[in-house]
Amino acid sequence: MRRGGCLLALTLVPALAACAVGPDFHTPPAPAVSVYTPQPLAPVAGQSLVPGVAVDPRWWQGFASPELNALIDRALAANSDLAATRAALKAAREAWLAQRGVLLPQAEASAGSSRNRSSAYISSAPGDPALAYSLQTAQVTVGYTLDLFGGGRRQIEGARAQYMAARYQSEAARITLINSVAVAAFQEAGLRAQVAAQARLVAIAREQLAILHRQMAMGQVARSDVLAGEAVLEQAQGGLSALSKALAFSQDGLAYLTGRAPGDGVVAGVDLARLVLPRDLPLSLPSELVRQRADVRVAEENLHAASAAVGVAVAARLPAITLVASAGGYSDTGIKINS
């Protein structure tokens, strides 16, 4: 009966180790949506919608703008916010790899050496000389906690989910940075074009005012016409000042996104006249688009980590078995000393 009990215990331990308490995480299903609008989407002039095609990871190259490509490449290499998310991703990966150690034995080793001398006054035999001796000790302790209820595996599962969440968070920051640079580049180019057009209006208004001054000197127009011309010029100059301020603000934002300081000079902008609009626009189903969104994947991995934490909490309420073994020894050498 004793042998049968041992065999039963050896059979139950692997069976218990194969299970893990707590809920098993399952990916939530994608929404059952097949269209965006009740009516089919109408393509833009000169462009066509291509269903079932994934978005190109380097979609901005479809504009055939070397300036835009250079801005985005520089932002990906030098943006400080993106560098922070990459550092957080590295820390999460190391935490996940370290958490895997809960399933391995834990070992501790210690060693010591001391030099001692016994007193002649407490010698076992009166008149014996004092004894000086060295003492060396060494000990090794090995412990292993059986993961019977899967608490350790749930911890590893949660750490991996947190690592994946940090990974998708970094990808979301990367996508956001690319979009922000593209929007800022197009906005800066548009404001630059508006400033140039407004500057031409200011020049025209100044020329018209000069003509009105000459006409008034010859008595061809009244003073009121000159005052009206001055008002037009001041209005045009006010619009130019506002546009110039907006352009400077946009250029500073573009410099920050690309990892540069505003004092480093104006960033080379995009030439709108040279942009080429892509002809084929990819069109994905809403359910497929949801799976491609990095922020949705971050939320999914956070839910996965929370599910694993439930298993860790349940396992903490159950008994734990830890096997401990230790071994050690000592040695001493003594030398007689004449007192």
Helix content: 40-55%
What kind of sheet is the major sheet? 3 strands, antiparallel
Strand order of the largest sheet: 2-3-5
Briefly note the structural class of the backbone: alpha+beta
Domain count: the total is: 1
Number of helices: 7
SSE order, as H and E? HEHHEEHHEHHE
CATH superfamily: Outer membrane efflux proteins (OEP)
Q: Could you say which overall geometry the principal axes of the C-alpha atoms support?
A: elongated
- Total count of strands: 5
The proportion of residues in beta strands is 15-25%
Q: CATH top level?
A: Mainly Alpha
- Output the CATH topology: Outer membrane efflux proteins (OEP)
> Which residues sit in consecutive blocks of at least 5 with pLDDT less than 50?
1-17
- Cα gyration radius (Å): 38 Å
Q: Whole-number average pLDDT?
A: 82
N-C termini distance? 67 Å
Based on the coordinates given, report the CATH architecture.
Up-down Bundle
Notes on the protein architecture:
Residues 1-17 have low confidence and may be disordered. α4 (151-217) runs antiparallel to α7 (294-316). The chain has one domain (67-115, 135-337): Up-down Bundle (Outer membrane efflux proteins (OEP)), CATH 1.20.1600.10. The radius of gyration is 38 Å and the shape is elongated. Strands 2-3-5 form a 3-stranded antiparallel beta sheet, with no helix packed on it. It has a two-stranded parallel sheet with strand order 1-4. With 339 residues, the chain is an alpha+beta fold. The chain contains 7 helices and 5 strands, in the order αβααββααβααβ.
